[in-house]
Structures are given as structure tokens and as C-alpha cells.
Amino acid sequence: MHKFSQTLATAGGLGLAPYAPGTFGSVGGLGLALATRYIFCERLQFSFFVFVWISLALGLALSLVAYFAIREVEKTWQHDDSRIVIDEVVGQFFSSVWFPLSYFHIVLGFVLFRFFDILKPWPICWVDRTWRTSLGTLVDDLLAAVVAGLALACLSRLLGR
Length: 161
Fold this sequence. Notes:
Layout: H1 2-9, H2 21-43, H3 48-73, H4 86-96, H5 103-119, H6 124-130, H7 134-158
Helix pairs in contact: 1-3, 2-4, 2-5, 3-4, 3-7, 4-5, 4-7, 5-7, 6-7
């Protein structure tokens, strides 16, 4: 079970990258978001309303899996170990999945999520410092996703994209 949790927590090994493992995890989350958007909106042509609910359910299921994987590996690894990138996968998924499949939204969504995940402005930094649990490992990335998504929505609206 622990080996399986390690595989999940490292997002299939992305977290084992020799440098910037969080960025590699975010790439995995972006790929998942783009695939989800493409399959349900482009191929199956679900309405956006239905797509939002489906992707929300997928994201919540992924968050639950992430929480349990993180909880398991943090028993032997340190809290928020750099190899744990499933939280970046979840965060990038949520910050990107509801935006159009355009270079503007894909690139800017990726950059904004990484920016807020690394910089950790308040309240992200507060969660990162005070929630020294598996849930804290996940929630700081979920907050970064919310802030990045809001920033992307504002910039998209402001720039007419």
C-alpha cells in the first residue's frame, strides 16, 4: 500500500524529477485539465454547465485520492516533501480546467498557478505555515488554484480573451 501511495503522491514519478518537481507535477495537472476539457467539451460536446459539474466531481475525487496518498507518505517522508506533487496536480487542474483551450489561457493559467504556489501570498502562506498536516499540504495548493483562477478570469476579462 505504501508503494502505491508513493506512486500517487509523486504523480507517477513526476515528483522524482531532479529539479523543480512541483513544476513537473503542475505539467501533469495541466495535461489532466486539458484532456478533461477536450474530452467533455470538444469531443462529447457537453454543455458548459454539465462540464462544470463533471469536472468538479473529478477534481474532488482527485483531491480525496491526493489527501489519502499524502497522508500515507507523510508518515515516513517529511511534511510537504518536495517529492509530493499530487497537490500540484490537483491545484493546476482546478486553476485551468474551466478556461478555454487557447494558448493565452493555457500558458497564463500555468504561470499564474506556479507563481501563487511558489510565492504563497496570504492566506496561502498562513495555511502553509500553520496547517502542518496532510490536509495543509493539499489546501495551500487548492488556495493557490483559487487565486490563480480568479487572476486568470480577471486578466481574461480585462484583455477581452
